[in-house]
Amino acid sequence: MILGAVHGAVLLSAFAGFFFVALFCLFPVGLGAVDPNTGAPLSPRIGTKVLIALGIAVMLWAIFYVLIALKIVDL
C-alpha cells in the first residue's frame, strides 16, 4: 500500500521536474523585439512555450515510466 503511494509520488514529482526544467529552458528562446522603455519582450509567447514544455515533459515522463516498468530503473 505504501509502496504504491511512493511510486505515485515519484512519478508526479518526476513529471513536475521535467515540466519546469523544460519550461525554464524555453523561456529565453525566441523573445524577439524588446520594449525600449521596460526592457520586456513585446511578444514572449508564454502559452506556446508552456505547451511545448508540456509536450517535452510528457515524452520524458513516458520514457521514465517505461524504464521503471522494464525494471531498468528501480524505485
Primary descriptors:
75 residues; mainly alpha
What does this structure look like?
This protein has helices spanning 2-26, 46-69. It is mainly α. It has one domain. It starts with a helix and ends in a 6-residue tail after the last helix.
Radius of gyration: 17 Å
Structural class: mainly alpha
Give the overall form: elongated
Number of domains: 1
Oligomer class? single chain
Low-confidence stretches: none
Largest sheet: none
Task: Report the β-strand fraction as a percent range.
Answer: under 5%
Overall mean pLDDT stands at 89
SS summary, helix count: 2
Order of helices and strands: HH
How would you sum up this structure in a few lines?
By secondary structure, the protein is an all-alpha fold. It contains 2 helices and no strands. The longest helix is centred in the first third of the chain and has 25 residues, at 2-26.
